[in-house]
TrEMBL record:
This is YsaB family lipoprotein. Keywords: Signal. The keyword Signal applies. InterPro entries: YsaB-like. It comes from the Bacteria. It comes from Leclercia adecarboxylata. The lineage of its organism: Bacteria, Pseudomonadati, Pseudomonadota, Gammaproteobacteria, Enterobacterales. It holds the Pfam family YsaB.
Amino acid sequence: MMMRAMWILIPALLAGCAAQETSPAQKAQTKKVSPVRSLDMEQLCKDRAAQRYNTGAQKIDVTAFEQFQGSYEMQGFTARNESFICSFDPEGHFLHLSMR
């Protein structure tokens, strides 16, 4: 009797293991910044860096723009090769300037 129950349960258990439930792929929610807003962010970053490094905004180069889950960052350099990162919130408002 015990053997017969085992032979009935084993295929059922194996069938349960073989059937895998596929979940839908999750995608991160991304909010795109408009080109006009990103240019405004770049100019604000240049202005803040120029003020911090005591130079003109035309001598500041922004080289990278990255989007993270809850913020944006722009990396740049001065004419004297000093690097910095400007951070912005998800709406594109300036948060802070980090000297690197």
